Each structure stands twice: as structure tokens, then as C-alpha cells.
Amino acid sequence: MVLESAVTDAQVRGAPGGAVITLVQGVSGRFTSRLHSERVAVQLGVWLGVSFTVAFVTGLISHFMQHPPAWMLWPSRPVNLYRVTQGVHVIGGPATIPLLFGKLWTVYPKLWQWPPFRWTSYVLYGALVIHVTNEWAKVRRNLWTAECVETQEEPRSRRRFLGTVAAASGLTVLVTVGETFAPLSKLAVLAPRAPGVGPQGVPVNRTAVAAGVSQMIRRPDFRLVVTGAVRSELSLTLTELSGMPQHTVRLPISCVEGWSAEAGWTGVRLRDLAERAGVVPDAVMVVESLERSSIYRSSEVRAPHWNDPLTFLALRINGSVLDPDHGYPVRLIAPDRPGVLQTKWVTRVMVS
């Protein structure tokens, strides 16, 4: 495929950087591969569009779950919803990279065309919506109609190229998905945390030492306080908290990095504490940590979550007392929440 110049010789000679334009025109004629075609670009563009959209939407979900606006009430069920959406987000991002490189290679000759009207060209470079709208006709023509006429060799070379790009994208998924999908954990060489490696078999992102609480959590005068808009304020020692009805449930910790790990958690249901303190059903709770230096030293727990029987103030993990790095003496564990909002080293619950 030989690209035609968008400007005349006279324009080249009179334009700023005319020598550069001449060089560009000479180079552009060298792109002769049939794979530099509209049809290949369209097919890769569709794949890239789907991949990018999935990563973008799941990224928005992650953002709004961590920083929910006042009007949004995120559900507590299904339990693994955030685990799936964040896993797809982190896995889908790397999978998009080979598709992007493949698309750039296919349309690469276009990058050597000198724009006759530079100011409009630069404006349109960032107009993704305009680009997608403009490409829609090409998608219909190349994928959903029989208008394209091609030689016998073109389908084979196109399929080989598209297959190579798809294989590269699939490989990135294969070496990432194990951080969420346990049977493939040994292949997760791109995972930021090794599944199953950590205190009590569960990875951690922030240790007690890093949080600056390693001394405070050992104080014998520790108390969990429930205060604010309550009928009866509570101030419970660890022994008193352990004396309340204990429940055990298996829930995942799902990190924004994409990895997740399931564990058995034992502790007190948050709604049992709320009932004991006389909290109204639609109240909002803020669970506060002993940690003071992190933006996630507290987390908001809204009614759909704290009323859920799977939302705990956990004292044990997998049958053992919480390791300091897992939030000893008390941590929040709830279904369908990002790991950064599963507050560790809990010392107070403020109700409003």
C-alpha cells in the first residue's frame, strides 16, 4: 500500500520544515505490507475498543467504590462482585497493550502523512469520540458487509497477524489472571503479590510497622468504642468483645492491585454491635483505625453493608488470632469492598 501525499510540491517548499516533509513523503512510500489496511485496523480497533471500555468501566467502579458519592449505595452482595470487577480491570489493562501496539503498527503509515491544516489536526488528535464516530462506517463496511474484495493471500496474512496480536494479549492475561484465579496462581508472574504468601497465608499490603501501630496494638488498656448517634455508647475491652456471640464466614480480601485471597474470618457482626448500642437502621458508620498517617485510616460503612450479617469486626483469621499485619486486635471485614476499605487496627466506630 502506497500512501499519497496530502500536500503539493509547492506547499512542501513553502511550508516550515519543508525538508522534513520531503523526508516524510519519501518514507511513507515504503509501507507496502497488505496488513497496513483499513480492514485489519478496523478488526484490531474493535478488539481494542472492547478491551479499553472494559478497563475504563471497571476502573470507574473501583474509583466510586473507594470514594463513593453521597448518593451511591453500593450493594454488599454478591460477595465476590468487587473481586471480579477489580480482577478484570487489572488483568484487562495489560491485555490492551498488545492490541494497542498492533493497531499502531497497522496504521503507522498514516502517522507519516503531513497534515495540510496543522491546527485542526492537532485539535482532532485528542478527540477520541470523534474518532470512534468516524470509524463506525469502516466497522460496518469491513465486518458486517461483503463490500471488501480481497486476494486469496490477504485472509491468511491477516489471520496470522491478528492471531499473533491475540496470542500476545492472551499471554499477558495468562501470566496475570492467577492473582485472582487460584488454579493458575503459579503462572501469575506479573502479580504484585504472590497468592497465599503472607502472614497466616494471606498477603498484606501494609504492615503494622509501616502503619506505626506496632506498639499501640499491644497496650493492655485497648478498648473498642462505639459512639456518636447511639442510644448507649459502648467501650469494650478485647475480652468483652471476645465474649460476644462469635461468627465465622469465608470472605475474600480483594486489593485494588487486582490480587485477591479468601480466608475464614471469626468475630462479631457489626449489626450486633449496632443493635447493642441502639443505632438506627439507616445510620452511617465510620470505622477508625489506630493508624494516623494513611488516607485510609478510616472507612465509611453505609447501611447496606453494616446491616449485612457478613460484615464483621474480625478477631481471628483461619482459626488463629489476627496477626499484627492483618489488623490485630480488631479489623473490619465485609463483603464486596476494596481491601483498602477493610480497615485494620480498629479502635472506634463513629455513628452518624
TrEMBL record:
GO molecular function, one term: oxidoreductase activity
Keyword terms: Membrane, Transmembrane, Transmembrane helix
InterPro entries: Mopterin_OxRdtase_euk, OxRdtase_Mopterin-bd_dom, OxRdtase_Mopterin-bd_sf
This protein's record includes keyword Transmembrane helix: yes
Gene3D superfamilies: Oxidoreductase, molybdopterin-binding domain
Superkingdom of this protein's organism: Bacteria
Pfam family, one: Oxidored_molyb
PANTHER family: BLL0505 PROTEIN, PROTEIN-METHIONINE-SULFOXIDE REDUCTASE
UniProt name for this protein: Molybdopterin-binding protein
